Amino acid sequence: MLSLPRLLRFYATRASSGEHPPPLDFNAIDKKWREYLNNPKEPADLGDKFYILPMFPYPSGVLHMGHFRVYTISDVLARFQRMRGKKVIHPMGWDAFGLPAENAAIERGVSPKEWTEKNIDSMKEQLSLMNVGFDWDREIKTCSPDYYIHTQRLFIKLYRHRLAYRKEALVNWDPVDKTVLANEQVSPDGISWRSGAVVEQRTLPQWFFKITDYKDALLEGLDRLGSDWPNQVKTMQANWIGLSKGTKVTFPLTAAEIDLGSHTSLEAYTTRLDTLLGVQFLAISSVHPLALKASETDPYLCNFLLLNRGNWNQKSKKGELIKSFKALNPLTNEEIPIYVANYAVHGTGTSVVMGVPGHDTRDNEFWAKRGKDVPAKIVIGRSLAKGERESGSEDGVFKGLGILKENCGKFAGMSSAKAQQAILAELEARNLGEADVNLRLNDWLVSRQRYWGTPIPIVHCESCGMIPVKEKDLPVVLPEIEKLSSEGGNPLASMKEWVETPCPRCGGEARRETDTMDTFVDSSWYFMRYVDPHNKELPFSPEKAKKLLPVDIYIGGIEHAILHLLYARFISKFLRKIRMWPGIPREQCEPFKRLVTQGMVLGKTYKHPDTSMFIKPEELEIDPETKVVKVSADGASPLVSWDKMSKSKFNGIDPRECISRWGADATRVHLLFLGPIEADLRWDEDRIIGIHRWFDKLWRHTSLLAGKLAEPGFLILPSLISRPVTTTSIPPEDHDLFHILQLTIRNNTHALSRSLALNTVVSNLIKLTNTLTSPSPEAQPTLATTYRATNELLRMLAPIAPGFAEECWARLHTHVPSLAGTRVLETKWPWFVLQGEHIGGTATCQVHIDGRFRFKVKIERERLLRPHGAGESYMRNIIAGEEEARKWLDGKEIEEFLIPPNAKVVCLTTRPVN
User: Fold this and answer.
1) Where are the domains of the chain?
2) Average pLDDT, whole number, for the chain?
3) Degrees (nearest 5) of the Cα angle 533, 537, 541?
4) What tens digit of pLDDT does each residue of 58-94 get?
5) More confident site: 716 or 88
6) Quick one: average pLDDT of 685-696?
7) Which of 223, 539, 692, 839 is the 20 to 30 A CA-CA neighbour of 699?
8) Which helix (H) or strand (E) holds 353?
């Protein structure tokens, strides 16, 4: 405790203090604390584990502000949980294989390995500047044989469980990168996500993982994730899996000019069987066998296929009519034209599109170019009340459910739901349709025809077939190549000494598989490797997996919602099934308990109003008085927007430059303060000065308080901050400060543990600092409570601004023998005194009526500490009992009653009583 009169007030005497703090040097603070902050220490009395993981980066060589944001968030949460006594796992690694590194190495004339290792070293140095602390003893690199030996073991396990297989398949081919792409890596308009090339389709032998076997488990798991995963991500995954109930409809074919052989019909899958009477055409893909058959006698179709074969684009309206045969509507026997169309995607459903121009926008747009003025047939409309006009159609397309129209024969007047049942019964009776379940998800194509990836551990033997490499011969090491050819493709296939190898089964001549694995295989299990990163025999021990998995909080961009997250969930469920991840029930088998998808950091972008060319910031000038921005060359006013940071737009910010100007902690706090985690941020460096002003205010306060603590007769014992405080241990003049301190602890604990509203953590600490430095004249707190509040403020500051908090902590305790030399990050997180008897007393609350202050009321101080505030019912009763209230509320009715959270104010709006 403090041995001073309990009513001695701190700020009443601050003017007489001779303590003048040294100016803040943020670069010096960063340098002083960097080594300590980069290597966090675990608390001695470890509690439960807490595994927090930011998605590991591809080592491009440069970290941008988006990286800084992600790693700041994860670092804040890791330090907070560590202060709560948790055994925190907060690792870092490198997603090091893949096409970008290979292409970059080709451009620079170096090996991918050299390029990657150099970039990793550079990025580790950049990370060290950000005051983030990772478990570097858990570091992994997916391009290291120590890692990919286990990726190969995982492949073999999948192969032995018949979940990895090879087959001839029509695949997406990138003609620039000369490799296969999964469907997920092709945009809806048929463009490669990497090279930007128009994707072609080719038939090649490929390796697949049978993810479709886990479709039910993947869908059911989404439902159980609840609110801990963003709804948008769960919806995206559910839509990608695309499990739907519908009908498979058989359309008989009629041909007058060619022999169709065994092709007597086409099958189309639909979830809208009620639109069958509105079908006006069918569309098939350019690689459909019937398209190839028809092209043999049709030069126009043949030319179309030569130009478009293998190209598909869901937005395209290109197509060519098949003249040699038609389809029949199975209900009416009406002839229907068949087109080869680019938007009919091979491998999706039955690869046949049922064209219904009256009820599907895409079909309508396609038909508008080919229907020869034949209008779209509308067969469903709304159920209309008398005198009501039909609506709900868009550009002549009615998409909703409704009532079948008069042109639907015996089905006219039926609702969509009833019509679907009746039409299905009719089709089943004719053997032309059946209920069916369709899956949009395809098996995961994992093979790539490029060098820089994990070699597939399979040997091809003419006698034995495909044989996995023996355990003793793993890893299959990727041979080093000093310089890759700019022609692309896979150089492994031409490396005779590497390719030729004995068969693992018979010992005869055989050839290695020369395809490498998709990098998504590497990242589908890396979070599991972190729990046991030095295990040479297994990817990880089942015992450690049981103890340390799943990941408690996983942080990354929403762009990974479908690919990486879906594959990681699949692999996790497989590993649970084969008991590599034991002790977890099937229904709870999810690798990431909570998913946090942070928004982007946007940069200020300038474009010339005449040319729309992007302008560099140094090509602008700002009027010092009006602050108006002009183009230096011609005085034009640039167009300003906020966009994703990129080199081409000259709007990128190098975190290293920002840290050099403002310090790592100010940059961290500014990133947190700009907005909620999930929101896109507009990076405005002009506003970071506000964080510096706050830091300066807190620094001066801490230094002043340290000077008071150094005066003779003051003694701080550890018990002062380790014991709970009650109303009997603090005087009345401390209640206001103690109340605000408790609110801050409660709200920041909740923000860091549940809501993750990290921007409010900053604002709450700023408010507490202002209360400490500008106390109410009526209630000057004692030095004891001022010290306690400052101590606990610094502990709450430590996770978000660790270097600055350590500097302030050291300054505060310069003359406190019991705490000198200690580290604030190694103290406990402050506790919230929840019990009402620990608060006590009353607080003054202002009442505003119709926007103007009218009077004050006294309320129980404990009420303001409740999670949902004082409560409307309680406040209504308090106000109703005030004589002053009658003056302002007589003859009026309260229309709205607003109690801002944690604010000692009530706002009422009224209206006259009629």
Assistant:
1) 244-438, 601-683, 686-838, 842-912
2) 88
3) 60
4) 999 889 999 999 999 999 999 999 999 999 999 999 9
5) 88
6) 94
7) 839
8) strand 352-355
- Burial of 391 (C-beta count, 10 Å sphere; 0-12/13-18/19+): exposed
- Which residues lie closer than 8 Å to 429 by C-beta, 6 or more apart? none
Check: CB of residue 801 under 8 Å from CB of residue 669: yes
CA distances from 20 to 12, 631, 706, 707, 795 (A): 17, 45, 11, 9, 23
Task: Name the token pair of 178.
Answer: 């000369």
Closest CA to 760 of 724, 722, 791, 796: 796
pLDDT of residue 617: 87
Answer yes or no: are the C-beta atoms of 296 and 314 closer than 8 Å. Answer: no
DSSP 474-488: ---PPPP-SS--TT-
* Pair of tokens at residue 681: 């941020």
Mean pLDDT of 169-173: 82
pLDDT at residue 194, rounded to an integer: 67
Alpha carbons within 13 A on the beta-carbon side of 379: 23
Q: 311: helix, coil or strand? A: coil
pLDDT beyond 90 at 751: yes
Cβ neighbourhood burial of 234 (10 Å; 0-12, 13-18, 19+): middle
- Confidence at 2, pLDDT banded by 50, 70, 90: very low
Spatial separation of the C-alpha atoms in residues 423 and 276, rounded to whole Å:
9
Say yes or no to pLDDT of 648 above 60: yes
Which is it for strands 681-682 and 601-607: parallel, antiparallel or unpaired?
parallel
Q: What percent of the chain has pLDDT over 90?
A: 58
pLDDT at 728: 61
CB 835 within 8 A of CB 797: no
Please tell me whether the peptide bond between 731 and the residue prior to it is cis, using omega within 30 degrees of 0: no
pLDDT at 614 over 70: yes
- Which strand (E) or helix (H) includes residue 466? strand 465-468
Query: Locate tokens 């990290």: which residue?
Result: 758
Q: Which residues, including other chains, have CB under 8 Å from residue 329's CB and lie 6 or more apart?
A: 251, 276, 277, 279, 336
Domain 686-838 sits in which CATH superfamily?
Isoleucyl-tRNA Synthetase; Domain 1 (1.10.730.10)
d(CA 421, CA 429): 12
**For residue 752, what is the DSSP state?**
I
CA distances from 245 to 215, 423, 438, 857 (A): 14, 15, 6, 62
> Higher model confidence: residue 794 or residue 313?
794
Instruction: Provide the residue type at 610 as one letter.
Output: D
List the beta bridge partners of residue 447.
517
pLDDT tens readout for residues 630-645 = 998 888 999 999 988 8
DSSP letter for each residue of 321-333: EEEEEEEE-TTT-
Identify the pLDDT of residue 869.
Answer: 59
| pLDDT tens profile 250-259 | 999 997 677 7
Residue 701 pLDDT class (50, 70, 90 cuts): very high
* Cβ neighbours around 62 below 10 Å, total: 15
Closest by CA to 243, choosing from 430, 407, 520, 439, is: 439
Tell me the three state secondary structure of residue 861.
helix
Q: Which secondary structure element, helix H or strand E, spans residue 363, and what is its range?
A: helix 361-368
Which CATH class for the 842-912 domain?
A: alpha beta
Angle between helices 802-812 and 783-797 (to 10 degrees): 150
Nearest to 585 by CA among 224, 233, 229, 234: 224
Q: What is the mean pLDDT of residues 574-582?
A: 97
- Look up residue 428 and give its two tokens: 């089943």
What superfamily does domain 244-438 belong to in CATH?
A: Valyl/Leucyl/Isoleucyl-tRNA synthetase, editing domain (3.90.740.10)
Could you tell me if 857 and 888 are in contact, meaning their C-beta atoms sit under 8 angstroms apart? no
pLDDT at 13 over 50: no
For residue 666, how far is the Cα from the chain centroid? 25
Q: Which amino acid, residue 401?
A: L
Kindly tell me if the per-residue pLDDT of 174 is higher than 90. no
